[in-house]
Amino acid sequence: xxxxxxxxxxxxxxxxxxxxxxxxxxxxxxxxxxxxxxxxxxxxxxxxxxxxxxxxxxxxxxxxxxxxxxxxxxxxxxxxxxxxxxxxxxxxxxxxxxxxxxxxxxxxxxxxxxxxxxxxxxxxxxxxxxxxxxxxxxxxxxxxxxxxxxxxxxxxxxxxxxxxxxxxxxxxxxxxxxxxxxxxxxxxxxxxxxxxxxxxxxxxxxxxxxxxxxxxxxxxxxxxxxxxxxxxxxxxxxxxxxxxxxxxxxxxx
Length: 253
Description:
- With 253 residues, the chain is of the alpha/beta class.
- The chain is 38% helix and 19% strand.
- It has 11 helices and 8 strands.
- It has helices at residues 34-39, 43-49, 76-90, 102-113, 129-132, 137-145, 155-166, 171-178, 187-190, 211-215, 238-250, and strands at 2-8, 11-18, 23-27, 53-57, 95-100, 118-124, 197-202, 222-226.
- The chain has an 8-stranded mixed beta sheet, sandwiched between helices.
- The chain is globular.
């Protein structure tokens, strides 16, 4: 496995490249990075072991990618273009796009912008909330910038601050990101997705919302709810991995 980088319209983007076979691009969630979301959870090992090439991007402002401090530079459609430019950089015509949480939103925008570049879409850790939206962005941004953690009263914002510190993230960059990266996608737009799609969410994931609800609005989409899992514990879940591999196999990917 090697970590490399490329220029995405003036922004340096890092990515991990491992394995050989049909390409699966992995896009992590907010305040995470390729290592935390995909390597430490054994996702890369699982994808490569199933005969695929796994390429895990560090989103702008995250991991080893360039840090930016203007919120407008973190809009999800812009971040989706980083994914498409990664495919260009790799010389890949198409790939399965697999995103978790914020990464699921980014991948969905990428499919809507460039449908011919995706062979399949896996939307995980963000389901009905992809359409309904996720609140609390201002509170999270303020929590990330707080000089005294004891002043953070919002429990969800406090959890994001703790996760950002755990992952060694640039909190100023993340504070800018959270204010701009949560654009909603309309029911009409998700209804335009015309490739094999899998929606996965934990049963107790209050951020993601219902996987069944979203899948019912994407033609032919499949849904999987992970029993007893929340937003954090769903990521590396064994059933999660089994479901994704079955989905890829069932579509000959």
